[in-house]
Amino acid sequence: MSVLYTHVWLLKIKCFYQEEIKKLKNELQNFDPSFFEEIEDLKYNYKEEVKKNILLEEKLKKLSEQYGIQLTSPSAASEQLEDEEESPVNFPIY
């Protein structure tokens, strides 16, 4: 590969990426700062709810052990619910 060919090739790549950067910057202009603040708020609120959920699951486990109630794990319960929803026997009642 000649030096000139390499130089031309690199210039084409540079132009391509400069154009991509322009497009991405234009896309970002559609989002005002409040959008990003809202995303951060959602992330924070989600983390807090996950913490609460963990605490509630621990309390529920202790209570179920205390009173001898057998509980299925949340993932097993959701899988069971999905299976029931797919069953043709379970029609929604309106």
UniProtKB/TrEMBL annotation:
Its main location: cytoplasm. It is found in: Cytoplasm, Cytoskeleton, Cilium basal body; Cytoplasm, Cytoskeleton, Microtubule organizing center, Centrosome. Keywords: Cell projection, Cilium biogenesis/degradation, Coiled coil, Cytoplasm, Cytoskeleton. GO terms for cellular component: centriolar satellite; ciliary transition zone. GO terms for biological process: ciliary basal body-plasma membrane docking; ciliary transition zone assembly; non-motile cilium assembly. Residues 73-94 are annotated as: Disordered. This is Putative centrosomal protein of 290 kDa. It comes from the Eukaryota. Signal peptide: none annotated.
